[in-house]
Every structure is written in structure tokens, then in C-alpha cells.
Design goal:
Helix content: 25-40%
Structural class: alpha+beta
CATH superfamily: FAS1 domain
Number of helices: 8
CATH class: Mainly Beta
Shape: globular
Distance between the termini: 24 Å
Largest sheet: 7 strands, mixed
Strand content: 15-25%
Strand order of the largest sheet: 2-1-7-6-5-4-3
Length: about 190
């Protein structure tokens, strides 16, 4: 796989994951039983009980599409669209997206966020940093280290239903499944080094 294709695949996966997280864990765990467990975390309670944005509804759609069905992930979805990563994320297979919620994006000063949104290369770099080219289940989160599509590394730690990513972001709704991804919704946007 050439580096450009890999970057695009990662960026797409990140965007999709971010969308899912921003939507407050709108991705579904209904894929097959071998794809992992059920969603966990306090943010899962805000997921709609039925319809396209519900866990069941999202399980049938690829990650970017699934995220677009949940208003809590609208900032992530907009960023993924702006970076041109929708098709990349939707066409990727067996990826994991650490998806920031709208509240996560709101932590970034508006002037800084506007600069990133205006710089497609930087936006793509940040979004693809949120995507891992392999399934990451709850069992993998206790003490994990994962290479991202951007080329950097994410670390995870925790136990029970409480997990951190890079010691800065908390997983608010983890292990949400779409047709092509595992999504862990997070409360902070991750920044590559």
C-alpha cells in the first residue's frame, strides 16, 4: 500500500471516528459477535434509542455515514468533509476511530480551530492521528500503544469502564461498532507531535 493511500485511509478512519465521538457515541455495537463487546462509558446514555443515530442504526453504516446521523458529532463530520476524508473512512476496513465530540472541539480556541479548518494539510494530519488501522477493543485499552494513520503513536491506559488516550482524553463512550470500524468517543481532540 503506498503512503498516500495509507494516509488517506487513516484520515478517513479518524474523521469517521471523530464524528462518532462528537455525536456522543452514535456508532453501534451490533456488528457480528466476533467484532467486540458492547458500548461502555457515561456518554453512551446520550445515544438515541432508535433511528439512524442509534447504536442499532449506526451498526449498519460505514463510520463517516454513521457519525453524520448524530448531531453531537457535527463538528467532526464537518471537519472530515472539509478534509475530503469521507470516502476514505467509509471505504476503510477494520479501523478504529477515536472520535472527538462537539464539546471536545469547543475546548479549542475559536481562532485556532478556524486556522486548522482552513489548512487542509494540517486538518488531515490531525484527523488521521485519530484513526488506527486495526480493531482496538476494550480489552486492548488497558495498556495499549497504537500506530495511527498519520504515522504517530497513540497510547491508552485504564481499567473497568474508565480509559484515557494519551493521558489527556477520556473515552466517554467506547466500543461503538459501525459496519467498518470500532469507535471510541473521546472528550478531547488529540494533537499529533
Amino acid at each position: 500500500m503506498n503512503p498516500t493511500h495509507t494516509r488517506r485511509r487513516v484520515a478517513a478512519a479518524l474523521a469517521a471516528a471523530a464524528l462518532s465521538v462528537s455525536m456522543g457515541v452514535a456508532l453501534a455495537p451490533q456488528a457480528s459477535a466476533d467484532e467486540g463487546g458492547t458500548p461502555f462509558g457515561p456518554g453512551c446514555a446520550s445515544v438515541p434509542k432508535e433511528g439512524p443515530g442509534s447504536v442499532e442504526g449506526m451498526a449498519d453504516d460505514p463510520v463517516a455515514t454513521a457519525a453524520s446521523n448524530n448531531p453531537a458529532l457535527s463538528t467532526l463530520v464537518a471537519a472530515v468533509k472539509k478534509a475530503g476524508l469521507v470516502d476514505t473512512l467509509n471505504n476503510a476496513k477494520d479501523i478504529t476511530v477515536f472520535a472527538p465530540t462537539n464539546d471536545a472541539f469547543a475546548k479549542i480556541p475559536k481562532s485556532d480551530l478556524d486556522k486548522v479548518l482552513a489548512d487542509k494539510d494540517m486538518l488531515t494530519k490531525i484527523l488521521t492521528y485519530h484513526v488506527v488501522d486495526q480493531p482496538v477493543t476494550k480489552a486492548d485499552l488497558a495498556d495499549g500503544s497504537f500506530k495511527t494513520l498519520e504515522g504517530g503513536t497513540l497510547t491508552t491506559s485504564g481499567s473497568g469502564d474508565s480509559y484515557k488516550v494519551n493521558d489527556t482524553a477520556t473515552i466517554v463512550c467506547g466500543e461503538v461498532h459501525t459496519s467498518n470500524a470500532t469507535v471510541h468517543v473521546i472528550d478531547t481532540v488529540l494533537m499529533p507531535k
